[in-house]
Amino acid sequence: MHNIKSDFPIFEHLPNLVYLDSTATALKPRVVIEKLTEYYTQYSANIYRGLYRISEKATQEFEAVREHTARFINAKPNEVIFTRNTTEAINLIAYSLGRSIIQEGDEIVTTIMEHHANFVPWQQLAFENGVDLKVVDIDDEGNLQSLDTVITKRTKLLALTAISNVLGTINPIKDIVKKARTLNPEIIIILDAAQAVPHMKLDVIALDCDFIAFSSHKMCGPTGVGVLWGKQELLQQMPPFLFGGEMISEVSLEKTTFQNPPQRFEAGTPAIGEVIAFGAALSYLESIGMDTIRAHERQLTRYALERLDQQFGDDIRVFGPQNEEDRAGIVAFRFRTVHPHDVAQILDQSQVAVRAGHHCAMPLHKRLQVPATTRASFYVYTTEEDIEKFIKALQNVKEVLCTRK
Amino acid sequence: MYEEVILSHYRNPHNKGTVSAPTSSVHKSNPLCGDSITLSIVESDGIITDIAFEGEGCVISTAAASLLTDYAKGKKKEDLMKLDASFIIDLLGIELGATRLKCALLPLEALQVVCNSL
Ligand SMILES: Cc1ncc(COP(=O)(O)O)c(C=O)c1O
Q1: Which residues of chain B neighbour A371 with C-beta distances below 8 Å?
Q2: Domain count, chain B
Q3: Residues A381 and A399 in one domain
């Protein structure tokens, strides 16, 4: 992981930036920015129906990214749907599949550690249809409790996250899926992989979920692009979510027939340039290697946890698993009684960017009995030196707010 | 932003707690950060005679609550209803970004809700 920062032009503009908010969105490497510019300067045409060369070039580049995305997660290209982000991907399932299969007496199961994107759509689906929403709790270390007593024959949908965006907990998805399918062979499993796909190798066949959602912008790609992967036999049965151009097969005054997946779920002009540049992000991550990325973040997480403990001991309360093997590069914490806003603001004075608040996980914060936390998170470009600057800036918080003058 | 005056109101906030025999009280929260404030007042003849606040807040919202409650004591309800964001910014005497302005305004919003309820 040598000199990765030089791949990211933002550090030329802000050489002292310590960016510890990659869980919210990742920085962009030069190759991605250049690919975006390439599309807009060389072949910025709409895709599919253009009979001229640059439209064909754009279509070819766009579809190549669908294939690349499929390879990246070990899927088939016709199972990869481009959305705007993870949130839209999950809503697509909730609207299209959810509203066509949920019936009275069914249950939906989710967990207390979900991002609102994988909680509110299911809660609303449950409200609208008068069905039960069951929420799996965590233990004191932030690990999911057993689903054995929660999942029943009535559980139609299980929606959970691969990695908590607050606790950093890496859920044992393979085991959970296996167990869930034994308890109820008909269950449909939706995985929020927004924090997983950017940081570790993920194989959709090995995991055996039914749907997986993630966002380009959290994995060095542009904003405006999300991915929904789904099993082909399920996608085939699902009605469209949005209607309009690109998704139809034939339209007459009497009726409309729809395309097959994935086009059935991609109404209107997509974020063409952004999808194409997302392909460059996939190549960039592959050039480093997903296993190397995971090892790097694991090492950094261990380092951060040790240094925080050494330096601040009981002044700091870190949430989530204490063992770096079970957690991603995400460290949410409380610093004495200092409000997380003040921590973040004082860190910003040293150009250390962290996030403070509920991180779109209000049910989880309620469970942890804190209104807000401060969160530092790591990615390919994060170094031990960054963590040292973070520790030093935290020391400053103590000096400004905790010592009486 | 963390000026000594602000910090001293944060460390030793004025009017923190509850008033005895409140005429009215209100609970308000900021959905962005989860901060909340409970404000209780004693009013007689349109004048705020006593006021106190409770809640978990950041430096800015705590200092704003401390300064605002000091200011409000002895003032007419209708005069307090006229206060706006620029008043709070002047009261704090610091520059605030858009996010932190919301923290600073929470106590004023609570005060105006409670005045309005009288
Ligand atoms: C676990 C998790 N799920 C979903 C999302 C939502 O992603 P997006 O805003 O790209 O839709 C996030 C983003 O913070 C996340 O961390």
Answers
A1: 33-36, 56
A2: 1
A3: yes
